[in-house]
Amino acid sequence: MARPREFEEDTVLDAALERFWAQGFDATSMRDLIECTGLTGASLYNAFGDKRSLYRKSLDHYVQRGMRDRMARCRDLPPAQAIAVFFSDVLRRSLEDPQHKGCMLINAALDVPPDDAELRQAVAENLRAIESFLYAIIAAGQADGTIRATLSATDMARHLLGVLAGLRVLARVRPEKELLEGIVASLQDFLTP
Amino acid sequence: MARPREFEEDTVLDAALERFWAQGFDATSMRDLIECTGLTGASLYNAFGDKRSLYRKSLDHYVQRGMRDRMARCRDLPPAQAIAVFFSDVLRRSLEDPQHKGCMLINAALDVPPDDAELRQAVAENLRAIESFLYAIIAAGQADGTIRATLSATDMARHLLGVLAGLRVLARVRPEKELLEGIVASLQDFLTP
DNA sequence: CCTATTTTAGAACAATCGTTATAAAATATG
DNA sequence: CATATTTTATAACGATTGTTCTAAAATAGG
Predict the structure, then answer these.
(1) Cα B42 to Cα A113: distance, rounded to the nearest angstrom
(2) For residues A14-19, average pLDDT
(3) How many angstroms separate the first and last alpha carbons of chain A?
(4) Does A189 share its domain with A123?
(5) pLDDT tens figures, B66-108
(6) pLDDT digits 0-9 by tens, A136-190
(7) Residue B4 — φ and ψ, nearest 5°?
(8) What's the Å distance between residue A39 CA and nucleotide C28 C1'?
(9) Residue B14 CA to C3 C1' — how many Å?
(10) Which nucleotide is nearest to B27 (CA to C1')?
(11) Percent of chain B with pLDDT over 70
């Protein structure tokens, strides 16, 4: 019953996400969001709560639509290839983006206010999911001998997560093809037995 | 001639730096800075210009006092050991800090507004200096056979820079001993011939 | 001692911030 | 058709933002 909504939730989150992604939480004003989503302030508050809540939902939306399927696509590949594809995918995305936004999840890691424990926990949890994803691939690769086993899969996954984070940070301030490619080039040496 | 200053420039920059480091540019208000530096708003503007200018000077101060000598201390060591000491130093600092501030330079990389080309350039330049520092060590290590030479020193330096950046990002949201140690543990395998 | 010059002090500025109050518009149900 | 309920629209709110204005305080040079 009652008056129907004039927008689609996902479309609005896509628009809001883009701004938060490019500018961060503080630098994005509510009026920015009103303009880029096309709907009014009252509607935004009514549908998504306050600014912080909208940020959280945008971040969840980003992870769900932007990362989950990208990870799923790699799970079907042979382990060594899965890692290679995953990172070359990150590389391509980083270099193709004319705005050099990097990764919203990584950006969020530094955007979190020091006192907002809940949001930091959410970011940490998503990073843990990526780490687990990498771990599963490496463990499988070590089992079938396609990935070197001189190091524990646990530590290798940690290292890859670190490289991923660094890659995305540098993609923002130094989006240079040679630099980013150099970072991942070393991974082949690192992974092959 | 004229009235003398009642503060030391370096002391003020130390205090300002600490706030910017912990909270970032946007989340640090001018009134925050007035309170933590102990001097008045007019004095801050008179001595350091506007907020952005103060941020730049704080960042330069951080790099000059916090990083330069740390890098210089490594230059005297044998190459393989220099890298090890450098990263274990970063590790220790990351874990010891109860505030988990990470590295101000890396934080700045994501803190830079998309339109502030000059500040981004300054951050990029400082990152390049670190890359050169790492390159010099690796090249020396490859020359004397203490560091593996299957990869170019250029790409290895890039990789290390990436790891460093990732380490510092994760230190903020996931300051877990095992995680950060796992990231650098892999480096020994990566470096030894 | 007087004047020039700089720094300090604290209030005040307009602008923008996130958020909410009020009322009109639009549908579902009775 | 009337009522209940939700969404929309617009304006306004107080608070906080970065910055500046005015005037007092403090020194150096003549």
Answers:
(1) 28
(2) 98
(3) 63
(4) yes
(5) 998 899 999 999 999 999 999 999 999 999 999 999 999 999 9
(6) 999 999 999 999 999 999 999 999 999 999 999 999 999 999 999 999 999 998 9
(7) -80, 160
(8) 23
(9) 37
(10) D17
(11) 99
CA of A41 to C1' of C23 (A): 15
Instruction: Assess whether A26 (CB) lies less than 7 A from strand D.
Output: no
Q: Which residue in this structure is represented by tokens 């880029």? A: A36
In this prediction, the answer to ipTM > 0.85 reads yes
Q: Judge whether residue A41 contacts strand D, using its CB and a 7 Å cut-off.
A: yes
End residue of a domain, out of A36, A67, A98: A67
Residue B47 domain-assigned? yes
* Closest by CA position to A111, among listed A39, A41, A9, A23: A23
* A173 and A119 within one domain: yes
Sign for the pseudo-dihedral over CA of A146, A177, A109, A104: negative
Q: Give the residue on B whose Cα is nearest the Cα of A155.
A: B182
Question: Which nt is closest to the CA of B1, judged by C1'?
Answer: D28
Q: For residue B4, what pLDDT band results from cuts at 50, 70 and 90? A: very high
- Contact (CB, 8 A) for B22 and A114: yes
Contact B159 A22 (CB under 8 A): no
Mean pLDDT score of chain A = 97
Q: Are residues A127 and A169 in the same domain?
A: yes
Mean of the pLDDT values across residues A105-125? 97
Tell me which chain B residue has its CA closest to the CA of residue A159. B183
Q: Which of B49, B4, B109 is nearest to A175 (CA)?
A: B109
CB-based contact B179 A158, cutoff 8 Å: yes
The pLDDT-based confidence of A5 (bands split at 50, 70, 90) is very high
Residue A109 confidence (pLDDT) = 98
Assess whether A53 and A87 both reside in one domain. Answer: no
Min CA distance, B6 vs chain A (Å)?
32
Residue pair A110/A155 in contact by the 8 Å Cβ criterion: no
- Domain membership flag for residue B72: no
Check B106 against A169: CB less than 8 A apart: yes
Q: What pLDDT does A193 receive?
A: 83
A125: amino acid identity, one letter? E
